[in-house]
Specification:
The chain has a 4-stranded mixed β-sheet. It is globular, with a radius of gyration of 24 Å. It starts with 24 loop residues before the first strand and ends with a helix. A hairpin with a 2-residue loop joins strand 3 and strand 4. The chain is 59% helix and 7% strand. Helix 2 runs antiparallel to helix 3 and helix 6 crosses helix 8. The chain is an alpha+beta fold. The longest helix has 45 residues.
Length: 321
């Protein structure tokens, strides 16, 4: 098959239209035919030119992190463009001797990481949260385009730091998981049982789900179920914003959006609005929970009970070692 032709947007020049190197994100080239590419599900609509810079930073962060571990079989991510659409692959390490060398080099890091993970994560997460809050304050105080331009550059620096942290943690935890699977296999634990032995701990994703669930139960208690049944999207937003529709419940929803509103539904898509810019999106999640969702705390408790039962059974079947 021929490689896909065409530029991602009119006037695109390979190596000049994206500030990051074109080997991170660019057009398909002959040597790319040796790799296995997938249409990237993170960008179902494709990306706009400004998003090229962000996606290239993501790929650069993955490559840097893959070398810092090092990941035995991969060198991080790379992407290619067909029109606005993104195809992504991992850069493989093909030489068996190099794979073995990289595995040996990373073994001590992977073995000690579980003991260090939580302290490292909390420290970096707190630092990034503070940097983000500071940036938000400076963005709010910017009233001219040159100042906003400088804030955008600062946002890109923080963006790159966050993605480097993402891949640093992800590659190490994947290594830990693989080691854990190996140990489980050695003592006779089926691979399908391994996920039942692992807990995620407290995460901001879980706290967001809990907040949405509390809003859904508060809406039910406030007698708003008929409103949620009758309306969706921005129409539901408009009705609930009125005093007759939302009342005091709306104030609680606004507090939630103020706390969680910098989230979005897409990755590196600058055309996709945040929850603060499009509050009908989290409102839609509240609606789903109200009309048929399940309590995330209850689900977590059920999973924890199953995990405890399974652990007890496995430990009883294992030798002390």
């Amino acid at each position: 098959m021929e490689l896909p032709p065409g530029a991602p947007f009119p006037g695109f020049v390979e190596g000049a239209s994206v500030a990051e190197p074109s080997d991170l994100l660019g057009l398909f080239r002959p040597e790319d035919a040796q790799l296995r590419w997938r249409l990237d599900f993170h960008y179902p609509r494709g990306i706009v030119p400004l998003g090229h810079e962000l996606l290239a930073v993501v790929n650069r962060s993955s490559q840097e992190a893959a070398e810092s571990v090092p990941v035995p079989t991969g060198r991080g991510l790379v992407s290619r463009l067909v029109g606005p659409h993104v195809y992504t692959t991992g850069l493989p390490v093909l030489d068996a001797d190099e794979v073995a060398q990289r595995a040996a080099a990373s073994s001590a890091e992977i073995a000690s990481y579980p003991d260090r993970f939580l302290a490292l994560w909390r420290q970096e997460a707190a630092a990034q949260e503070e940097a983000f809050r500071s940036l938000r304050r400076r963005i709010g105080a910017a009233h001219d385009l040159p100042t906003l331009g400088r804030r955008f550059e600062e946002a890109n620096v923080l963006f790159a730091r966050a993605w480097r942290t993402h891949f640093d943690v992800m590659y190490r935890l994947l290594g830990v998981l693989q080691s854990f699977r190996t140990v489980c296999a050695a003592v006779g634990i089926p691979d399908e049982d391994v996920p039942q032995l692992l807990a995620s701990g407290d995460t901001s994703v879980q706290r967001t789900d809990q907040g949405l669930w509390l809003l859904s139960t508060a809406a039910r208690d406030a007698g708003l179920t008929p409103v949620f049944e009758a309306h969706t999207g921005r129409e539901l937003l408009t009705v609930l914003r009125s005093q007759d529709g939302g009342g005091s419940w709306w104030a609680g929803f606004e507090r939630f959006v103020d706390a969680m509103g910098d989230r979005g539904d897409a990755v590196t898509d600058v055309t996709d609005p945040s929850w603060r810019e499009a509050p009908e999106r989290p409102l839609g999640l509240v609606r789903q929970m109200l009309l048929g969702g399940r309590n995330p705390d209850l689900l977590a408790a059920v999973q924890a009970a199953r995990r405890a039962d399974r652990l007890a059974a496995l430990r009883a079947a294992m030798a002390p070692r």
